[in-house]
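Data deposition worksheet. Section B asks for the primary sequence of the deposited chain exactly as it was used as input, without tags or linkers unless they were present during the calculation. Section C holds the resulting structure in token form. Section D is free text for depositor observations; keep each observation to a single sentence. Incomplete worksheets are returned to the depositor.
Section A, Depositor: J.P.
Section B:
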Amino acid sequence: MSERHFTTRRGFIAGLGFGAVSLYGTWAAYGAAPLPFGGKTAAAPEPDAHGGGHGGHGAAEAPAEAGGHGGRGASAGMAPEEFRFEHDYFIQRYTQEDGSVNPHVSEATHSHVAEGHDHGHDAGGEPVDVYLMAQKFSYSPDMLRLKAGQAYRFRMMADDITHGASIQLGSASRITRLRPNTVTEQVITFTKPGEYLVYCTVYCGQAHDAMQGRIVVA
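Section C:
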């Protein structure tokens, strides 16, 4: 009785082994064997487009933040040092006797274009460049004189801490967050003459409520 059980067990084990070998042979034929005997080895990872094979580059990289020329956001084309230079020139060149700044003064004696600093004033309907610096607790310039119907490219930056610039446009307003050493652009066209208020929308200290500027549109 025991001998017959032994024979049956041995036959069962032999049959199981034969079935396993047959199954493995089928895997190998399709290159799916779990061991390296199947004829195919795992392909080495291809290097990424940068030629490196650095970890994490297998997936598409997230695009860099848009440079700000479409809607408009942070400007990718102007460094803080360049902004400060252009801002200072803008103030120096266009400040009027009453302290306001008017970028439409006569260009007769203005050689800045020849020096490579053309701000595009009234040039074929192109936006006129306007520079606005935010700092505790004021804007520079604090009063602008502009024209109705003319597009203006406001180039703005905070000089110390984060500020805001809200330009009242009738019942609505254009709000921009200004960060230190980050140039931000907004293209704005004032359709009606009038006086427009600019005020800070980010708390910046005790005199925050007094941080205001004016835009007089004629």
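Section D:
The domain at 99-105+126-217 is CATH 2.60.40.420 (Immunoglobulin-like).
Residues 2-29 form the longest helix (28 residues).
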